[in-house]
Amino acid sequence: MSVGPGGRAGGYHVGDVDTVISVEDVAREAEQMRVVVGAEKLRKLAHDRPFVSIEGLRAGYGNMEILHDFTLHVAKGQSLCLIGPNGAGKSTVLHSIFGFTRIFGGKIFVGEGAARRDVTPLTADRKLKEAGIAYILQDKSVFPDMTVEENLWMGGYLLHSTSAAKASAERIFAKYDRLAARRRHKARVLSGGERRLLEISRALVMEPEVLLVDEPSIGLEPRFIDMVFQILDDLQHKDGKTIIMVEQNAKKGLEFADLGYVLVSGELALAGPGDELIKNPDVARLFLGG
To answer: What percentage of the chain has pLDDT greater than the value 70?
Structure first.
């Protein structure tokens, strides 16, 4: 966070930096805006039909608990953006859903009605193959010395055959002309925006229903950021994907997402529609540039 001329807050990850406020100060101020957000409200935000649910989750790494009694509900075809100070546990939420953390307590569910399933104990591979959960990593996760086509084939490593992976890759090439035109090119020569498109597309080879998206705009030039968010918007509204994201550009993330959760110290501090959180003066002051 920064404070500009006249003491105006410059926000979180944005704004001119005249005076830098520490992460601890941001977290302390964010702590003061915490309200009790009941599970009933979270379910209503998900239209009382959650497709992805986290209930009372305690999770972390090794012996360190990062998330404390954390609850989340997102409906099928909805999008949720997690924001908060550095170290609040945002990425840990994604890691926990996908199976990268130690679970101390609580449950993670995917599905509706009779198809609702407890996926908490599943490995990451099983979550991808059986529960339709895909994780789109931060930048630099492509294989630079493989072609675009070969990178897509790698996304289908859990499919029953190589031909199935290739068929899925062809469906993606039909969807994204930009990738199709570069299918024989090494991934290392792609622009930043094209690499992010490849990372997203590789996750689509397994035809997941849930996309966990970690910092989609990180490392991108401004001209590519809108392109990436348009791709995600199409995946949500045209293909019906459920999207849970962490985004360092909090304003962009909340503008995109149906829902926003503010995390502080591993707990939920605030939740609401994305467009309402943008108008919240405390959220704006701490995370959106004033």
So the answer is: 91
Q: Is 14 helix (H, G, I), strand (E, B) or coil?
A: coil
* HEC assignment per residue over 136-174: ECCCCCCCCCCEHHHHHHHHCCCCCCHHHHHHHHHHHHH
Residue 158 near residue 206, CB atoms below 8 Å: yes
**pLDDT value at residue 139:** 62
Identify the pLDDT of residue 138. 72
State pTM to two decimals: 0.89
Question: The domain 2-287 belongs to what CATH superfamily?
Answer: P-loop containing nucleotide triphosphate hydrolases (3.40.50.300)
**In this model, does residue 183 exceed pLDDT 90?**
yes
Residue 67, strand partner residues:
59
pLDDT at 11 over 60: no
Count of other CB atoms within 10 angstroms of residue 24: 11
Q: Which residues are paired to 61 by β-bridges?
A: 64
Say how far residue 258 (Cα) sits from the centre of its chain: 13
The CA distance from 169 to 188, in Å, is: 19
> b/e for 219-232, b at 16 or more Cβ within 10 A?
ebeeebbeebbebb
Angle CA 81–1–34, to nearest 5: 55
User: What confidence category does residue 35 fall into, taking pLDDT thresholds of 50, 70 and 90?
Assistant: confident
Domain range summary for the chain, segments of one domain joined by +: 2-287
Q: What are phi and psi of 163, to 5 degrees?
A: -65, -35
Pairing of strands 117-118, 267-273: unpaired
Question: DSSP letter string over 93-119?
Answer: HHHHHHT-SEEEEEEEEESSGGG-EE-
